[in-house]
Amino acid sequence: MSKYFGTDGFRGEANVDLTVMHAFRIGLFLGGYFGKDHRARVVLGKDTRRSSYMYEAALCAGLAAAGADAYTLHVTTTPSVSYVTRTEDFDCGVMISASHNPFHDNGIKLINGSAGEKMEDSVIDAIEEYLDGNAPEVPLATGGDVGRIVDYAAGRNRYIGYLISLSTQSYRGVKVGLDCANGSTWQIAKSVFDALGAETYVMSNRPDGLNINRDCGSTHIEHLQKFVLDEGLDVGFAFDGDADRCLAVDEKGQVVDGDKILYVCAMRMKERGTLGDTKVVTTVMSNLGLYKALDAAGIGYEQTAVGDKYVWENMAANGHLIGGEQSGHIIFRKNAVTGDGLLTSIKIMQAMLDRKAPLSELAAPVTTYPQTLKNVVVTDKDMVMEDKAVLAAVKEVSDSLGDTGRVLLRKSGTEPVLRVMAEAPTEEICEKSVDAIIDAMRNRGVLIQVK
Question: Is 184 annotated as catalytic?
Answer without folding.
Answer: no
